[in-house]
Each structure stands twice: as C-alpha cells, then as structure tokens.
Write a structure and sequence with these properties.
heterodimer, A: Alpha-Beta Plaits, 5 domains, five-stranded mixed beta sheet, 22 helices, 22 strands, B: alpha/beta, two-stranded parallel sheet, globular, disordered N terminus
C-alpha cells in the first residue's frame, strides 16, 4: 500500500465514533425503558460495528478489541440468542462510558486501555463465551459467533438499475470469508431472450459464506439493497434447526437512518481536546441558502460595476436601487452565515436521559424526564459552554428538588417526580428552563444557612426573591448530607458565573411544595451583540444593550460627592456610583461636566453603575472582534467592532466596569 | 418471440444479423463478446445472440472480454436456456480471465459451460 496518511482521518473517526456512542446510549436507554423495538438493537449493533471497523482501520487496536467483544455480545442479542436484560443494558452502558473515555485518551495520544477498560472487557468476554469459561479471556476476543452463514439472495428486476451489481456484492462477501455459490438460477418468470431487458435482473443465488464472519458485516454488504432484492440470512449450522433468523433489508434499513437525527450534533465534552477549533456539521439547506445568497451578491455586484463603468447622472436611481439591494443581500448573507453556527440544543439535551437514569438508581427516586424545544437553535460556542451548567441544574433538581417516592406520596403527589427541560427563543435570547415538581426551595433552611454563613443578619426581612438570590452566593449549599452529586458547595454560584460568562442570566422561581423553575437566558450568539453606541470625546464605545437599565441626564442636585473622590446619584431608591468612562479609558476632549453628559445606568449581577458618556449615538448590532486575538487584553473592554464608517469602536465590558465601580463605592 | 425453431444447418446464413465469421463447420455460428461486455453493450449482443440461435451450434468467443457484469452473464444464461430448448449446443473458443473470474464469483461457470478452470 502506498503511504496514505491516515491520521488526517482520525478526527472524523473520533467524531463519528462519539456520535455512534451517543446513538448507542440513546437506544440502550430506550430499551431500558421497556421498548421492544428490534430496530434499537440493530442501531446499537451498527454503532458498535462501525466503531470497531474504524478503530481497526486507524490502528486503535485496544478500542477495536473492546468493541469486538461488545459486538459479539450484541450479535447474540440480535440473533435472539440472548435476552435483553437490565443487567446487560447496564453493562453495555458502562461499555459506552468506557469507550468514550478510551476514545478521549486515544485522541490525546495517551495509552488507551486502562485497568477499568480491561476489567470491563473481561466481563464482556465472560458473558459472550458463557459464564463457565472465564479462562478463555484472550482467546474469546477473537471468538467466532458462527462458523458461517447461509444466504439466499434473489434479485428483484430493478436491482441492476440501482447500480447494485451482484458481482460487486459477491466480491465484497469474498472479502469477508470463503464464498461458496451453492446454486445460481434464473428466477421463475425470467423472460425469453428476445424479451429480455438487459437492465433487469432475474437471477437468484443460494450462497454459503464460510468463516468467522459477523452478521453485521454481511448486513453491511447488503445495506443499500433496501427493497431491491429478497434476502435471507441464516447461521450455517442452525440453518436446518428452524430457529434461523430471516431478515429482509427492509427490516434492517440502511445505516444512514439512525444517524439522520444525529446530524449536526457536535462533539461531546469528552472530546474537548479535539473539538477546539473543530468541525461543524451543517445542514445542506443552510449551505444552499448561502449559495443562493452568494448568487444574488454576484448579480448585484455585476449590476453595480456595470453602472460604474459608464456612469451618468441619469443612472443615479439605478445606483441607489443597486446599493439598497446590496445592503439587503449582505444582511441576508450575514444571517445565513450566522445560521451555520446555529445548532439545535437537542444535542445538549440528549445527554440528560442517561444522567437522569443514573441518578434515579443512585438516589432511589423516580423521575420522569420531559424534553421540550430540542430543535431550538443556538450558537455552537454557547452550546458547548452551556452543557455543564445545565447538568448541574438537573442534578440539583433531582438531588435537592424532587422528594423520595414515599415523601411524595405522603404529600399527595404522584410517586414519580417530573423534571422538565424546555428551550425556546425569546427576543434575541434563547431561554432554557429546568423545572421540577418537587418540594421547592426550603426557605427556612436557606435563611438559617445564610445566617450561619454570615450572609444575612438574624431577623432580616427577606422577600422570596431575596431568598432565591441567596442560593447563588459562593459556598452556599443546604444539602443536609453532601452527596457526591451535589452539595459540595460548588454549586449555584459556579452555574451563575458560567452563564454570566456567556452574557446570560440565571434566575429561579420557587413555590414551596410545588416545585422550582430555573430559567437561563442566553444570547443566541456571542459573535454579534446588540449595543448602544455612545460618544466619549472623539471616540466611540459600545455598551451591550442587555445590561442597560436606563439612560438619563442628571440634574446637579441628585449627584453627591462621597469620601475618596467618588460620586453617586440617587436612582430608584438607591445610590448608584458614577463611573466617568472618559477617566477610566483616558479619553481626551470628553465632556467632564456631569450635567452636560448622559449617564447610562448598567446592571450586572444586581449591582448598578452609572456610566458617564458624552452622547448617545444610537442602537446598533456590533460584530464582536476579539481584542485579545488582535491586540491584548484590556481591562474594562470586552472586544472591539468596526463601525459603518470603518472606524473602530470598543465594546464596554459591563461586569468588569461594574466591579471597578463597586470597588470605588466601597472604598 | 418464443420457439425460434432450429433451421436446417444449411439455412444458418439466411439471417443478416447472424454472426459474421464462420468457423470451419458451416453450421456453427460465432459470436464474439466485446471487450467491454457490460450492460451498455447488451442490446447489440442480444441481437447477435438472437440471430445466432438459428444456427444449431454456437461458438462464443470471450477471449477479448476485459470487463463484464451480471447483466452480461445473465444474458448468456438466458441465451443458454433458449439454446437448450431448441436443442442447440454451446462451445467456447476462448475465455478471458475477467470473464472466468466473474462467472466464478456468480457461480455461473457450469451453467455457461465455461471451460473448466480453477475457480477464482
């Protein structure tokens, strides 16, 4: 073989394998919840099979060996020689986890097999080779499920027209094992030579394929013949015993089908190392939309250059039309490009059935998980970062929110608790809600704990909102016992910080005895923000619209000077510090008189600061360019954007500025 | 068009579409399979074979075949069946490796009476 560099395909292999594992996991969970759909078993088998194939091709022998044993086990399930039991599903789910870890290790170049994977493999081998023969661990890795297969294959007339030539199929079978043609024959009803259409097929075969061949390998050969032939496949030695498995391709559809809903799914967290700057799967419709838009752009461009070449004043109207069209197309193009980065949140939601199942077992609770709005799309970057906070909230809801079945019964609720995840678009944001019908926040426990931690004083009056706010404080956890799931004191504050890093907010509403709802609101994308353009001296600054509470011109009497040179003003029953941006950013020629300028009140994390600017220029969308990437990190600035006149405006980092302002207030 | 009767040996040449070349014996019809003996070539081949059916003994020359497919081999199988019906005989003047291999894979060596070669 020539030296083809296989490493270039590694990333694709990892991505596809992880997707396969996702599909396997989903199917296992469906089986676990009592589904008897045989297609699920096929899905699991196919996933394992393609991972094995890929791993062997790319030289990840440990992964290949592991999946081989798992595949043998699945083969037994598929041929109905082994029943689907809870224990088996558990073992296979653990295998999925183990494979994920193995893939993560291979992608980062670490040794792939470890004690855990070896132990699990031995367990699988034991199961495959029969419990009695535990010593044959190594040999069983290459164990043959059957000594061969009997294949009955009859072409339907249109087979050849689909481009599927039996000649090629049989050659593929020959790759798998020794192919014996027991009989080849013309089917009943084959026409006379004079009437024979060369493109229609009237042949049938009885074949035997000898050797250690997995059923899945044979299926793979016939995968694309769905409805083009009649096919029976039986294990060779069982061919006469009557418990043979007959399958037509209709029952074992092409591999593409189970993968279809997984299209566009991003790589899981386990592949963080490789997903940095990774690839993205884009629906063909989105690409088509882009190409359409490109076509429009080219037309407009040629029209404009036509006008430009021999311009007369009479063509001014045409020029205007052209420019308007250019603007429209550019905007649409921008939207289309942004849409490429948008992925359905379903891929994040997909990990929850497994999580919920594991937690149910661990905690002895019963949970019904409902997922809504899986098709809601959000930016890939946001999606990758929202996973962990969501996992945390789901864990919390099950661990702290939902009660034990007995307690629920006593409270007159169904024993099975309800956990609902919902995602939808609202304005320019995506909103994700995690609601449970559990006990709700325990007000007394929270207040007691807060007092104990010195977060509030005894006897302090607190509204429900204030109490809810307390759980987001660092180091706050009310779990009576710290479980390994939650209650280690790294909880809601981390969630809030993560969400805030994405420019979003998290809040909670809780009704005692009825349950709690956590609401996360996130910007759809990090790449474009809605901002308010402001002038400071000769410079332009963008303040993110999402943080702005109000903009106002202050009257002199509302401003107070405080010790240390700071200024505050009275705003809605509180004193808000004034931050002179011209001073913070050292802008020359700026308005220094507070009455002449405008104060933009911004809020971050419940804290407010008034930013003094010269003037407001208007609202606009800003495409965020990273300052760090192009220059260096600047305190108080989160990025830059290019304005319509080509000049650069800086984007104010509101939380950074607020922290600065609060420090002044405290000083 | 069933039942094309075998005509008398000396009548073998009365059809224009019949095989071009005679072998030694005048009643034999020779059909040469083309190098690219695949589906696209079958319409022409079919006409030749239909014409050849009129002769009692058919000689097929497959020595030039470089590429073939199931459609081509099926055509020969159907031809063979028809030939049997009208009592004709089939012999091969030559067979290429490609033809032998394909017939071997599809298990058609015996039906087509290909010269015995170790199957691929």
């Amino acid at each position: 073989m020539s030296a083809v560099d296989l490493t270039q395909f590694h990333k694709t292999f990892f991505e596809e394998s992880l997707e396969g594992l996702d599909a396997m996991e989903a199917a296992l969970l469906a089986l676990d919840s009592g589904s008897t759909d045989t297609e699920l078993v096929h899905t699991i088998f196919r996933a394992a099979h393609s991972i094995k194939g890929g791993a062997a091709t790319f030289g990840f022998t440990d992964v290949a060996a592991f999946t081989h044993v798992a595949e043998s086990l699945l083969e037994e399930v598929r041929s109905e020689r082994r029943a689907v039991e809870a224990e088996l599903i558990e073992l296979l789910l653990r295998s999925v986890d183990c494979l994920r870890a193995m893939l993560a290790r291979s992608s980062s170049g670490q040794p792939v097999a470890d004690a855990e994977s070896e132990a699990l493999r031995a367990e699988l081998v034991r199961l495959v080779s029969g419990e009695a023969d535990a010593t044959a661990v190594v040999a069983a890795a290459t164990v043959a499920a059957v000594s061969g297969w009997e294949i009955g294959f009859s072409a339907l007339p249109h087979l050849l027209q689909t481009g599927n030539d039996p000649l090629r199929l049989f050659r593929e079978l020959q790759q798998l094992g020794r192919l014996e043609v027991v009989r080849a024959f013309l089917l009943d009803g084959a026409p006379q030579l004079a009437d024979l259409d060369p493109s229609s097929c009237h042949l049938g075969w009885e074949l035997r394929l000898h050797g250690d061949v997995a059923r899945g390998d044979i299926d793979a050969v016939f995968d694309w013949l769905d409805g083009d032939c009649e096919l029976t496949i039986k294990p060779l030695q069982a061919a006469s015993s009557g418990n043979a498995v007959a399958a037509t391709p209709q029952q074992a559809p092409a591999v593409v089908q189970p993968e279809a809903p997984a299209a566009g799914r991003p790589v899981r967290e386990t592949a963080v190392a490789s997903s940095e700057g990774g690839t993205i799967r884009v629906g063909i419709d989105k690409v088509d939309a882009l190409i359409n838009m490109m076509g429009e752009l080219v037309i407009t461009q040629s029209m404009l250059s036509d006008i430009g070449e021999n311009f007369q004043l009479s063509k001014l109207e045409h020029l205007r039309d052209g420019l308007a069209q250019l603007e429209r197309t550019t905007r649409e193009l921008q939207e289309s490009v942004m849409r490429i980065r948008m992925l359905p949140i379903g891929s994040v939601f997909n990990r929850f059935p497994r999580l919920v199942r594991d937690l149910e077992r661990k905690l002895g609770k019963q949970v019904r998980l409902e997922l809504h709005g899986e098709h809601t799309e959000l930016d890939k970057t946001v999606m990758e970062k929202i996973g962990d906070p969501l996992v945390h909230l789901v864990r919390n809801a099950i661990d702290h929110g939902l009660e034990m079945p007995a307690q629920r019964k006593a409270a007159g609720k169904p024993e099975t608790g309800m956990l609902k995840l919902n995602a939808y678009h609202e304005g320019g944001n995506i909103v994700v809600q995690i609601s449970d019908d559990g006990a709700g926040l325990n007000r007394d426990a929270i207040v007691a704990k807060a007092q104990q931690r010195g977060l509030i004083q005894a006897g302090q009056e607190l509204s429900d909102a204030d109490v809810a706010e307390l759980i987001f404080q660092p180091g706050f956890s009310t779990a009576a016992q710290a479980t390994d799931l939650s209650g280690r004191g790294v909880g809601m504050d981390v969630v809030r910080r993560n969400v805030r890093d994405l420019g979003g907010t998290v809040s909670v509403r809780s009704i005692s005895g009825k349950g709690s709802t956590f609401t996360i609101a996130l910007p759809l994308t990090l790449a474009i923000i809605d901002g308010l353009a402001t002038a400071i001296g000769s410079e332009r600054y963008i303040v993110p619209l999402i943080s702005i509470v109000e903009s106002l011109r202050l009257r002199p009497e509302t401003v107070r000077k405080i010790a240390g040179g700071g200024e505050v003003f009275h705003f809605r029953d509180e004193y808000v510090p004034i931050m002179r941006l011209h001073r913070a950013f050292a802008c020359a020629d700026a308005v220094t008189d507070i009455e002449q300028g405008i104060v933009v009140v911004v809020e971050d994390d419940g804290r407010r600061v008034g930013l003094l600017v010269d003037d407001l220029l208007g609202q606009q969308q800003a495409v965020v360019k990273s300052l760090e990437a192009h220059y260096q990190r600047v305190q108080g600035i989160s990025g830059a954007t290019i304005l319509s006149d080509g000049s650069v405006a800086l984007i104010v980092d509101v939380s950074g500025v607020v922290r600065l302002g609060q420090r002044r207030k405290a000083a | 068009m069933a039942g094309k009767r075998k005509t008398a040996p000396d009548g073998a040449h009365d059809h224009a579409a019949a095989a071009e070349v005679d072998t030694g014996r005048s009643e034999d019809a020779l059909v040469v399979l083309p190098a690219d003996c695949r589906m696209a070539a079958q319409a022409a081949l079919k006409e030749e074979l239909l014409g050849a059916l009129k002769a009692g003994a058919i000689v097929l020359d497959g020595a030039r075949v470089e590429r073939t497919d199931t459609a081509a081999l099926q055509m020969l199988v159907v031809f063979r069946r028809e030939l049997d019906k009208c009592g004709g005989t089939l012999s091969w003047r030559g067979t290429s490796d490609a033809l032998n291999e394909a017939a071997g894979v599809l298990g058609l060596v015996q039906i087509l009476e290909l010269p015995a070669i170790e199957p691929a």
